[in-house]
């Protein structure tokens, strides 16, 4: 069990790295740094010799070789492939555990299926030219993988001993659902290049409530053969997406404050979870405001994605601990 837990923790750390680096690749406009999959212009690495570059550009005339972007994309693929391999190893090791719980028997194999689907989404991200539905799904799949790896690791620890009040469990579950919706809204904002659609705060183009177009903004399917790099939506639709993400942030803030107050009234570990919820909430609010205020600097935008993963980890850990305890 000790080696299983250590490998689980290492895989969890790598998954976080893949999520943050994937955000960096997307935000630095390197998602199509390699126009094919799984190689890069037909290479395992990046074409660098003059004749290789010439051949690559003849094969993909619409996509000249940009080595810095290509390397970012390929490093992300190498990291994701390593993550997939470690998850497969975890699944096989789980079959050798003595008296495993149902979670330890089933969850590693669920993760294998999920990481295979993530590989398909990674391929479609390139072949479907950054279609927002696929790219957002890829982001959500990565965060789901991260959450399940964390749940798996926590499941190898002793269950909580203090009874969990049912109202607190329901509030924690509701908070997790609200956060998941907000993460989708954030991913949709990023993949539709709407992060700067409202360049001012707290207003949007000088008004508190801008004109919106939800039918266009949240149309999931625009057809095939369209290059979505830099977005295809008009300004009104992008403003709608950005504005909705801001509304979601307000809802999340209120929900998390209520959850934190409830947790701070609890003893021991749950009180510490209350402080953790307040800390990650403050971090995300500050980074989100600064990202708009400073006009989407790459490091802040990437940190906002990392903060979302930490926020999710906090709520997943809280829900796991509450569910491992008797309810009253």
Key descriptive features of the protein:
single chain, mainly alpha, flat
Summary of the model, kept short:
The chain has ten helices and no strands. It has 328 residues and is mostly helical.
Largest beta-sheet characterization = none
Report helical residue fraction. 55-70%
Mean pLDDT across the residues is 95
Low-confidence stretches: none
Instruction: State the end-to-end CA separation.
Output: 31 Å
| Structural class by helix and strand composition | mainly alpha
* H and E string: HHHHHHHHHH
Oligomer: single chain
Give Rg in angstroms: 21 Å
Please report the total strand number as a whole number: 0
- Total domain modules: 2
- Indicate the proportion of strand residues: under 5%
Principal-axes geometry comes out as flat
Number of H- or I-type helical stretches: 10
Protein topology:
Layout: H1 2-27, H2 50-59, H3 67-94, H4 102-127, H5 132-155, H6 166-191, H7 214-217, H8 235-264, H9 268-293, H10 298-323
Helix pairs in contact: 1-3, 1-5, 1-10, 3-4, 4-5, 5-6, 5-10, 6-8, 6-10, 8-9, 9-10
